[in-house]
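Reference record
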Amino acid sequence: MELKGGAALVVGGGGGFGAATVRRFAEMGANVVVADFSEEKGQALAYELGDRGHFVKTDVTSEDSVRTAIVAAEQLGPLRTCVIVHGGGAAVSRIVGREGKRYPFETFQKTINLFLGGTFNVLSLAAESMAKNEPLESEQRGVIITTASIAGFEGQVGQSDYAAAKGGVISLTLPAARDLAPLGIRVMCIAPGTFLTPAYRIGPEEAQKKWGPLVPNPKRMGRPEEYAALACQIVENDFLNGETIRIDGAQRFNIK
């Protein structure tokens, strides 16, 4: 699968991972739709990229909203690449706290719907669009990259909803790849460790001081550009399919 000259959709394209991926795709010659709920970030990035960037405000939990972003991408050419990397707030609380109060079921459902439900919503709609593409010489029609987290493997204390959602994204990868194989559509998942992104809501130096020493090698947090480089490799390597790749410097979350 080649990026040059094609249309790509990056959902969550205004965030740390997403913005780095959008820039990398544009550098490689793709026309990129920056789909993000934040108009400020999305529009600024699209403006930065000029003719290569196009912003569409997108709510991953809404079918109509995601369809609008997909139509925008289709107007730039056949949609052959979709990266799903949206963020969103996730509360941190034990299922039952020390004071005996239960974690609200409504909050749990909201997190699952955002991260797992939103991923399936985008994946299925993007695949529906890709299924209409003429196959390339490689018999491929498209590639979809989802984003989990190493918390999907080793959830920490207070991460029951987030870990369950990201674990669901990981588990979705293989059956989705098998479902879409007859159409020539690949599905891959990236599970990042601790990366320097706005999700941590603290400054880079403070984040690096707190999280960097916990990474075995290299002794630092990941950089969004490293996520973007992996996404590009997945797009270009047709034999990568149905698998989750951890990108975490050999880090494993422990109980804390």
